[in-house]
Each structure stands twice: as structure tokens, then as C-alpha cells.
Amino acid sequence: MSLVVDLLTDPELLAVFGIAVAGVLAGYLLYWVGTHRAFASDADRATYTALHTMALASPPLRDGLSGCSAAAAAPHLRSLLDSAAVALTDEYSVLLAWDGEPNHHAEWVAQAAFEAANTGSQQVLNQREMDCGRVDCPVRAVIVSPLEVDGNVVGTFAVVSNRTARAGLLRATGQVARYVSSQLELAELDESRSRLAQAEVRALRAQISPHFVYNALTTISSCVRTDPEQARELLMEFAEFTRYSFRTAGEFTTLAEELNNIDRYLILEKARFDDRLQVRLQIAPEVLPVVLPFLALQPLVENAVRHGLAGKPAGGTVSVTAADAGAECVISVEDDGVGMDPSKLQDEMNDSHLSGAHVGLGNVHDRLRAAFGDECGLVVETGVGAGTKVSMRVPKFSRGVRATPAPAANAAG
User: Fold this and answer.
1) Which of 2, 33, 105, 335 has the fewest CB atoms in 10 Å of its CB?
2) What is the CATH number of the domain that holds 73?
3) Higher pLDDT, 55 or 192
4) Are residues 246 and 133 in the same domain?
5) Are 220 and 296 in the same domain?
6) Is residue 266 part of a domain?
7) pLDDT at residue 211 above 70?
8) Distance (Å, whole) CA 7 – CA 13
């Protein structure tokens, strides 16, 4: 009963519920048509046609409101209402798209769109309020409804009709406008999610230890006179490490690319720690193409070196493993260093925006869960003096997750 009350009182929830039901019905009807090759009644045919038309209008609208998306969606929206013409405008009442014949009514559409955008309410112009100078003009009404995203008017949807503006047509226009608004809200949600993911990667880049950069350059400079060739090789590794870490393309990469970057990082750290840092890799070749969030492994390895082994006088070993586990890949980074209090680590991981020593882990944890689901976050095993092991389970294939190839190295390098 609570859900029914919520649906009746919350317009946004009702719109989302309507879209979900429409999707289910569309899928059922498509299946039914494919198997029966006919409709049981005219009502079935009309329902299928309406849902199919909405499905055609959705993809461009999910790209946001622009001239291109409006032009692509307008013909389908006109078909939904069987109107003489439809128009879409932006929040400033600038015409984005017009589909249909009687475009000599654009002046009245612009006027009504301006009022709808300013008031946030549907505007109606009847035939007696419009004088286009044509005695044979078939247009009987112009109806304009605002398009809203998060309570803000972002544009308008206009219908130029050959029918009188009666209650049914007004409601239908309003409902189509709500449908368009819901698609634009989803587009805004997609954009917000993308901006958040980019911000999280930028935050992670900012957390690349200044101490590592300083120590790497110091190590390289110390080799310039004693071993110029090694200095050159280390400088090349440092350049490739920074190029990869600060690339701007894509949220995802492959395990192979992440491991290449880790290898560069460890070469630079081994030059500094010498025999105090041992590295062990155990990677199943079949999981190298697995897709991960960009910079998902480097923070784990850096934490193992910085906080696990740097404080241990005798140094130790960092182990990186990636194993095939059926539909998943299990990846772990382990060190035999000083470890830490599990409760302190948990506090820092619970907020990926903290500035604590292990903040990179919280960032990676959140991005893994956002990409693959709550069950795919980090699992950390540690204790004071007992070393640390950080593990993750990543699906080998995930819908909508694609790796962006790493940019080619500069040929001049």
C-alpha cells in the first residue's frame, strides 16, 4: 500500500515507474509480435506502436537536449501525438528542432514557449488567438509544455495541432513532455556519473605521492655521473609512468596496462631500495585482457611499498597475483611489511575523500563498486606487524564497461 501511495503522490516516482512498466510491456509485445505475427486487437496494435515509438525517441534524448538530439527525437514525438507539427526549444526559448509542415506558426510557438519557460506551466493558444493571415490554415491550437530536470526548466515541448485544444490533447501533450523530461533527467544522471568518475580519477592522480616523485628524481640524479645509462633508463621509465598516470582518455583500462604501469613504478622504487625491495608476480595470462577502472592497482602497490615496507629496516617482498576464477578474475597485492590496525584502516576506507595515508584504497574501493557492484569492492586483511593483503574480484566481462587503449608513447622519447 505504501508503494501505491508513493506512486500517486510523487510525480517523479510515477514517471520512472511508468517508464519501467513501458519497457516491460514493450519487451512483452515485441516478443508476442515475433511469435504470433499479428495483434489480437486494434488496442494491442496501438499500444505496441506507442511503446515502439517511445523506444525510438529515447536514445537521442538520453544524450541531453541539443539541436541534434531534438531533431532526431522530434519525428517520433510527433508520431506519438499524431499532430501537424512539434517543436523543441532550449531554456531560452531558442528553437532547437521543428518537425512538420505548418512552420508559419513558429512565431506563436516561440511566444508560448517563452511563457512556458518563465512560468513553468503549460501554455495554450487557440485559433482565435493566432492570426497567420491564411483563411485555409488548418491549425487549431498551439500547446507548449515545459521540460524540467531537477525542478529547473531546461526547455519546452510544443505541439501544433489541427485539433481543438481539449482536455485529452492537453493531458497527452503534458505526459509526452514528462516523458521527454524523464529522459533528459537520465541524461543528466549519466553526465553527473561521468563527471564524478573523472573527478575521482583526478583525485587519485593528485594522491600520487610527492615523496615518490621526489625520491625517483633524486635516485635518477644520483646515477647521472656514476651510471649515465641507468639514469637514462630510469628517466624513461619515470616519463612513461607519469604519461600513463596522467592520461585523460577513458575511465577503464586493461589489467595488462595496469601491470605495465606497476612494473615502471617498481623499477623506480627498486632503484632506490635496492635489495630491500623484492617483487613477486604471479599472473595468469588468460586474465590480462580483463577490464579494470583506470589506476586501480597502482595505489595498492604504492601503499604496500610506502606503508608496508618503507618502515621496515630490512625491507620485504611485494607480491602481485592475478588468478582465473571462472567468470571472475581475483587480483591481490600483498606485502610482508609492518601492517596496521584494521580499525584505523577501515575508518580511512569508509571515506574516499579523506587525506589519510591509505586514502587511495577508499577511492579504488568506491570505483570498483560503482563499476561492478557492491560485491566487487576491496577486501583488506592486515594487522600490526602482520603485513597487508588487498584483494579484489573483477568480472571478466561486464556490460557497458570497455577499456580505452593507452596512448602510444611519444616517438621522440
Assistant:
1) 2
2) 3.30.450.40
3) 55
4) no
5) yes
6) yes
7) no
8) 6
320 pLDDT more than 60: yes
- Domain span at residue 170? 2-192
pLDDT in tens, 321-363: 999 999 999 999 999 988 887 877 766 665 544 444 454 788 7
Flag whether 103 is in a domain.
yes
Total count of domains within the chain: 2
CATH at 326? 3.30.565.10
pLDDT tier, 92 (very low <50, low <70, confident <90, very high otherwise) = confident
